Amino acid sequence: MSETPKGYWIAHATVTDQAKYDEYRAGVAAPFEKYGAKFLARGGDFEVVEGQAKERHIVVEFPSVQAAKDCFHSPEYQAAKAKRKGASENDVIIVEGV
Fold it and tell me: pTM for this structure?
């Protein structure tokens, strides 16, 4: 019996309006809890060892890839994401764990 792989959001952000970005962060708590999200990294110290990077790096673990996708596309997360508009530049991917 094989275990369902976990899903991860890997996000990179440069914040351009901290107050608006804080509204977004407050709004993600409910959908993240609903879909079983766990922060593994959230904007801590980092070192660029190759290439270029934005200023914040976020890794969020979900129980499955489907939960990661469902959270991102949920009305609750999309409402929070709308608050982020104009507050940051973002790259977000969803990846399957090993």
Answer: 0.90
